[in-house]
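For this section, I looked closely at a protein sequence along with its fold in token form, which I now present.
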Amino acid sequence: MPTVRGCHLPDDLLYDVENHIWFRETGDGNVKLGMTAIATAMAGQLVAFTPKKIGRSVKEGRSCATVESGKWVGPAKSLAGGEVIEVNDELVSSPGIANDDPYDQGWMVILKPENWDAVKPSLVLGSDVTSPYEVKMDADGFAGCE
């Protein structure tokens, strides 16, 4: 598993480094997504998670959820557009799960993407994510997760 400045980034995921979002293909044409460990470390302890409702549409490059910490409120942007088919209700009731386990229990939504074949090539493979994240962390002035 790649680690960048103490931040773990599983190599079986696809990454939107700019927006700190990971994608996992679910095998049925849908994609699960969540925030990276870098996103949760930068935001601090999450206190609220408000996803789009099931059945709602997410436009490409727009928010699929709003996340809030003690020092930040903002959108979780998805490069993939599509329909929200499942939300992580556990994360709604306990947002801090994303800080503790961003890649398994801390997932945000599952989308039925309408443009996955166009979006997928723009994402970074986990095995190749170290260098792009080093550049992004330098640009953001983020020292790391530890």
Summary: The chain has one domain: 13-124. The longest helix spans residues 130-140. The mean pLDDT is 96. The first strand starts at residue 3 and ends at 4.
